[in-house]
Structures are given as C-alpha cells and as structure tokens.
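#onboarding

Welcome to the new folks! Below is a worked example of what a typical request in this channel looks like: someone posts a single protein sequence, and someone else replies with the predicted structure as tokens. Don't worry about understanding the tokens yet, we'll cover that in week two.

Example request:
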Amino acid sequence: MNIQEMATAVVQEAPVIICLFNNYYLGMVRQMQQLFYGKRYEATCLRRRRTCPANCKGPNASCPPYTPDFIALAKSYGARDPCGKERTSRRHLMRRVPTQMPRPSLNL
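Example response:
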C-alpha cells in the first residue's frame, strides 16, 4: 500500500484494517544492497542520523525516534484512531467484522 491509497480508503470509507510491520528499514532497497552489493548498506536505516556511529549495525536502544510517526500520519488522513499496542487490542481489532468499521484503521 502506498500512502496515497490511505486517502482513497478514507474517502471511500473502506472498512479495512491496515497492519503495519515496521522493521525501521527501506526493505526493498536493503534487500537489493544485500543481494547485489555485498551487504554494503547505505541509507536504508530510517533511524540513522548524522550522530550515529559509523559502525552502527542497525536500530538499537540508543537510536533516535523513528520517522515518520505512522499513527499521526494515519490520523492526519482521517483514519480511525488506532486501538493501541497491547496484544489484546490487536486480537480484538482483528476479530471485528470489517463492515462494522466506518473507515480504515491502522494497527502497528
């Protein structure tokens, strides 16, 4: 899904649940660098900043917050407020009949 499709889903009041699995990387770019460029990763970690050490191996506890804030982004498009990050909330959301939802919902 592209971000523009979020706007379409909201305008059309599509009763969909959007599940976002965030690994903090530009996945396809990183995969190409892994397969064809000898694992020489460049600009694929979305938490990397100028202040990160040169030998950083990826996201860890000392990394800055992730950008973008997907929850705020979904709300800005008019998607339903996410149900939260608790495991029980996710299970409850996935069990709901999608037709009961008035507009898209984002689940992280």
